[in-house]
Design brief:
CATH class: Alpha Beta
Shape: globular
CATH topology: Nucleoside Triphosphate Pyrophosphohydrolase
Low-confidence stretches: none
Structural class: alpha+beta
CATH superfamily: Nucleoside Triphosphate Pyrophosphohydrolase
Radius of gyration: 16 Å
Number of domains: 1
Order of helices and strands: HHEEEEHEEEH
Largest sheet: 7 strands, mixed
Strand content: 15-25%
Distance between the termini: 51 Å
Number of helices: 4
CATH architecture: Alpha-Beta Complex
């Protein structure tokens, strides 16, 4: 299947970023290898209209101290998550898509993800997600500017700051490793 130029560009960017990324542990290395193999097998892996398992981009937003995370109560999943979603043909890169998703879903127009991949995650979707069955999520981190106000988007029921030591019930096992990885990456950015 021939992909439009925008999808090919994103596909190539995902491959380049994943090949250049040094995972922090064996589990993340296994996921990196799985993502790269999936991209090799599926030229349309970046598109929501592609295979039922496709790549997505997301961003966990921390405050400047690294003590709170801004999360969205996702309308379809009815759970608290970081911001993120599907790629669009106009996205210039995987990083750009994560930044766009963060801005759209948080209501913070000046939000910018850091360029380094923070974590990879592969998860099966439960609920009404149409043909989407599994997301291979490339995750980034961002530090929200001091005093910034967030807003609820059409994809959310709520957007709220949570203390990193008091993440919402039912999400701690999934979010805690992401928050911890983001705090390590942003330690220099969040210091005083």
């Amino acid at each position: 299947m021939t992909q439009p130029a925008g999808w090919r560009w994103l596909h190539d960017d995902a491959v380049d970023r994943l090949e250049a990324w040094t995972p922090p542990d064996d589990q993340q290395e296994r996921l990196r290898a799985e993502f790269l193999e999936h991209l090799r097998r599926h030229p349309d892996a970046m598109s929501k209209a592609g295979p039922p398992a496709h790549l997505t981009g997301s961003v966990i937003v921390l405050d400047e101290s690294g003590s709170s995370a801004l999360l969205t109560l996702h309308r379809k999943a009815r759970q608290w998550f970081q911001f993120g979603g599907h790629f669009e043909p106009g996205d210039r890169s995987v990083w750009h898509a994560a930044t766009r998703e963060g801005r759209e879903e948080s209501g913070i127009p000046e939000l910018t993800a850091l360029p380094e991949i923070v974590q990879l995650d592969r998860h099966v979707l439960l609920g009404d997600f149409g043909t989407c069955r599994e997301h291979l999520d490339v995750r980034f981190a961002a530090v929200a500017p001091r005093g910034v106000e967030s807003a609820i988007s059409s994809e959310s029921i709520d957007v709220r700051w949570w203390p990193v030591d008091g993440l919402p019930e039912g999400t701690r096992d999934d979010l805690r490793p992401l928050v911890d990885a983001a705090r390590r990456l942003t330690a220099g950015s969040t210091a005083g």
